[in-house]
Amino acid sequence: MLTAFLACVMLAFGIGATSAWAEGEALQGTLKNGDKPVAGVKINAFTQDGAPAGTATSDADGKWSIPVTGPGDYRVDLDQSTLPADVVLTNNRPSLTPSVADGQARNVLFPLGPKGGAGSNQPGAPAKPSSFDRYADLLYTGLHFALIIALAALGVSLIFGTTGLTNFAHGELVTFGALMTFLFNVTIGLPLVLSGLIAVVIGGAVGYLQDRVFWGWLRRRRTNMVTTMIISIGLSLAVRYIFLYFFGGETRAFSDYNAQPGEHYGPFTIAPKNLVSDVIAIVALVGVSWALLGTRLGKATRAVADNPALAAASGINVDRIIRLVWTLGGGLAALAGAILGAYQNVGYQMGFQILLLVFAAVTLGGFGTAWGALVGSLVIGLFVQLSTLFIPSELKTVGALGVLIVILLFRPQGILGRRARIG
């Protein structure tokens, strides 16, 4: 029933029209010098064994695209001899090796900048960031990513605390929020902030309907938690492929604040859109935390999480509280999706791709505790980014999960979790 509802929402708002975007696998990108597109630059693609896979030249908007024959690893070369005389490749990496998934149009980024940047030793050499600047940038991106994870993790933790459900379909709520934001911003043409607000409201409504027509029904039938968890895995797969069918396999950007250049704030270089997103996320997290601690509904929620039977005996409507939690979790997940879409573009798997880190944050902080989810998200987000100072970026997620394992070996209940007696 939930999958049918999501399909009807997408059909009603016209997301099905976007399925024509992805006509198979492709490599694509946009070349810009600051906010100015760079045209006439030649891009060459090769398969893993070195065979030519295609060639493209950036157009007047700096865009280029190379259709490829299927999923796999590719090498993409930027021909630096075709760059304008006043533009250079700022990271000195003219060759990149992206992986293309089934049905994916993979974005490939070549950062460009003006020739002869500040701090260069040779005329025309790009400026190289210092180790301190790199540390500062990674510290900020870690905090920004941690806030995104925290928004999703808080919903997961609250739902687990009140129902005992480990919801593997929560990542699809994150994706749904990004898709709804994309729909209202790109398809309908509303401002991004308003589109995100509408997406949060719709995400909360979807969370409420999930419990009203599906999870609540399973709960009344006294379905055991293992079975319910397996059902959530199946639901996650079904909804993800509904997204793929209607949205397509490639990633797309919002129409507002796309490729926004960063501004300097002391040692940090931050795009204004990310700074605004951080403020919105912090306000949302602080507001929910205050509501849990300082309102009657928050106290009732904590009572249900501690002991549902005792809460019901004291006059608390447990089903009403659980639906409130699902509504809140759906809204927070949608907000996480909107912010994540502005940070790294929108794709049908974006929620699924961060789901493991969300679970890691909740587990690390302590399952069922809201504050634990926030602390765990902070640890995971920072470690994922800062670990690239010491290990290859391809291993940053593995490193974060390794830290999770080590911490849980010494504190199995998580950082803020409570010891539970078993047996």
Automatic annotation (TrEMBL):
Which first-to-last residue range defines the signal peptide?
Answer: 1-22
How this chain sits in the membrane, per its record, is: Multi-pass membrane protein
Keyword Signal present in the record's keywords: the answer is: yes
Pfam families from the xrefs? BPD_transp_2
Q: Which GO terms describe its molecular function?
A: transmembrane transporter activity
Q: Where in the cell is it found?
A: Cell membrane
GO terms (BP aspect): amino acid transport; carbohydrate metabolic process
Record bears the keyword DNA-binding: no
Any single GO CC term annotated in Swiss-Prot or TrEMBL for this entry: plasma membrane
- Major location (coarse): membrane
Say which domain of life the source belongs to: Bacteria
UniProt keywords (A-Z) are: Amino-acid transport, Cell membrane, Membrane, Signal, Transmembrane, Transmembrane helix, Transport
Q: So where does this one cross the membrane?
A: 138-161, 173-206, 226-247, 275-293, 324-343, 355-383, 389-410
Q: Which SUPFAM superfamilies match?
A: Cna protein B-type domain (SSF49478)
Gene3D superfamilies in the record: Immunoglobulins (2.60.40.10)
Homology family: Belongs to the binding-protein-dependent transport system permease family. LivHM subfamily.
Q: What is this protein called?
A: Branched-chain amino acid ABC transporter permease
> Could you tell me which species this protein originates from?
Dactylosporangium matsuzakiense
**Which lineage?**
Bacteria, Bacillati, Actinomycetota, Actinomycetes, Micromonosporales
